[in-house]
UniProtKB/TrEMBL annotation:
This is Response regulator transcription factor. GO terms for molecular function: DNA binding. Residues 2-122 form the Response regulatory domain. InterPro entries: CheY-like_superfamily, Sig_transdc_resp-reg_C-effctor, Sig_transdc_resp-reg_receiver, Tscrpt_reg_LuxR_C, WalR-like. The lineage of its organism: Bacteria, Bacillati, Actinomycetota, Actinomycetes, Geodermatophilales. The keyword Transcription regulation applies. Keywords: DNA-binding, Phosphoprotein, Transcription, Transcription regulation. It comes from the Bacteria. It holds the Pfam family GerE. It comes from Goekera deserti. The modification 4-aspartylphosphate is found at residue 52.
Length: 218
């Protein structure tokens, strides 16, 4: 795996690089700001870009904007975004462009090395990895939604795990049920949220976005 890191904190930036190299992952370049990150991605063409949400000069959303731009320039690029806090609007900005090859983790997850590496490999392999704490806070802060209100407790659990990026088999393992039961719950979720099968809409992503958009509504 070939990686570029965008992180303005020098200790975290170098710590990430050391961790990844120790795991046999090739760190092609590191950058302290969004411009440097984009230049490194353009030049090195990595498999994955690890990007801090808040970067110089304003430390607001430069990292998110760089992530969106990097994915626009290089559609096959996997992106793993790191954030100190749960920021729904930023997660929404990323997911609107599609959830494949995308991760959104809290920085504290980096200290849990196995979980961090699992998320990194998941996005590199074309999957999604959303921090469980992000999902939990979004679910508890979600405003009423007629479709969401129709979901059973188990269906909400399944949707929460979908939002973390887990596939059907992983969800079945987490809930200790069969793959068939998970498939049945997901079909019911799609029906209750009025998500019809089309070529244009990824229904799993659309279901997660219902939570994100509701949470962002004032």
């Amino acid at each position: 795996m070939r990686v570029v890191i965008g992180e303005d904190d020098p200790l975290l930036r170098e710590g990430l690089a050391l961790l990844l190299r120790a795991e046999g992952i090739q760190v092609l370049a590191t950058a302290a700001d969004a411009a440097g990150l984009l230049a490194a991605v353009d030049e090195q063409r990595p498999d994955v870009a690890i990007i801090d949400v808040r970067m110089p000069p304003t430390h607001t959303d430069e990292g998110i904007q760089a992530a969106v731009e990097a994915r626009r320039r290089h559609p096959d690029l996997a992106v793993l975004v790191l954030s100190a806090y749960v920021e729904q609007a930023f997660a929404t900005d990323l997911l609107v462009g599609g959830a494949k090859r995308l991760g959104y983790l809290l920085k504290e997850r980096v200290g849990r090395v196995a979980e961090f590496l699992d998320a990194l490999h998941r996005v590199a392999d074309g999957g999604t990895a959303v921090d469980p704490e992000v999902v939990a806070q979004l679910l508890t802060r979600t405003r009423p939604d007629a479709g969401l209100d129709r979901l059973s407790t188990r269906e909400r659990e399944v949707l929460g795990l979908m939002a973390e990026g887990l596939g059907n088999t992983a969800i079945a393992g987490r809930l200790v049920v069969t793959d068939g039961a998970v498939h049945k719950h997901i079909r019911s979720i799609f029906a209750k949220l009025d998500l019809l099968p089309t070529d244009e809409v990824d229904r799993r992503v659309a279901a997660v976005l219902r939570y994100l958009r509701a949470a962002d509504t004032p």
